[in-house]
UniProtKB/TrEMBL annotation:
Organism for this UniProt entry: Lachancea meyersii CBS 8951
GO molecular function: phosphatase activity
Tyrosine-protein phosphatase domain span: 8-171
Protein's name in the database: LAME_0C05930g1_1
InterPro entries, alphabetized: Prot-tyrosine_phosphatase-like (IPR029021), Siw14-like (IPR004861), TYR_PHOSPHATASE_DUAL_dom (IPR020422)
Length: 226
């Protein structure tokens, strides 16, 4: 039996893959990945597809559904036309934050992440993830253009301005994936309390990464186990 990959399939990290929404024809290939989780950045859960739902149940794969707008979905002509301001990009930062909070735990791998067609939504999320690995802007945009024909000013701005604080709670640090790098100022809540009890200031020195301090997202760990 021939193995057919989902469209735009590729590896992001070891045991972490990306692509388009998988179909029944892709199931034999997905079996070879030994997946534990599938993260769906789509309008509907992957399990709405009967064949994919049966596959996930049979293999014990958990589907993590983060609702996102369809990138190039068919228009419903039966609905009354209402003028709405088009969003510059199809997702908000909240989608990226939810992905990071899930993907930071190494117990959630092997994992496959996908949007409807494997292009824009997945590329935006992966581009933001790359900032946690200190990829250069040039490298991030080059990878983005591998899966998209172009990048507009809104998409570029979405990636460049992703520098928010992300709360990570109750994570055993030995379970943190190595490719999400912790900066010097990302002090856990427990460490701050410990420093306060000793009348010491926690080490919050910020590294200057690529000459742009403060332009990277920051992970705030709370209740972590070291």
């Amino acid at each position: 039996m021939s193995l057919v990959t989902p469209l735009y399939f590729s590896a992001i990290q070891a045991n972490f893959y990306r692509g388009s929404q998988p179909r029944e024809i892709n199931i034999p290939f997905l079996v070879t990945l030994g997946l534990k989780y599938i993260v769906s950045l789509t309008p509907e859960p992957l399990t709405e597809d009967p064949s994919m739902g049966a596959f996930c149940r049979e293999k014990g794969i958990e589907n993590v559904f983060i609702e996102c707008n369809n990138e190039k979905g068919p228009k419903d002509k039966s609905k009354t036309k209402v003028k709405r301001k088009k969003k510059p990009v199809p997702i908000d930062y909240d989608v990226v934050v939810q992905c990071i909070q899930f993907l930071i735990d190494k117990k959630h791998y092997p994992c496959y992440i996908h949007c409807t067609n494997g292009e824009l939504v997945t590329s935006l999320v992966v581009a933001c993830l790359r900032k946690l690995s200190y990829w250069s802007t040039v490298s991030i945009f080059n990878e983005f253009l591998t899966y998209n024909s172009s990048i507009n000013i809104h998409e570029r701005g979405f990636i460049e301005n992703f520098n928010i604080q992300i709360d990570i709670r109750d994570l055993d640090m030995k379970d943190k994936v190595s490719w999400m790098i912790v900066r010097a100022n990302e002090v856990s809540e427990s460490k701050q309390k410990e420093a306060a009890s000793l009348n010491k200031k926690p080490n919050t020195a910020m590294k200057n990464i690529g000459g742009f301090p403060g332009m990277l997202p920051r992970l705030n760990f709370h209740g972590v186990k070291s």
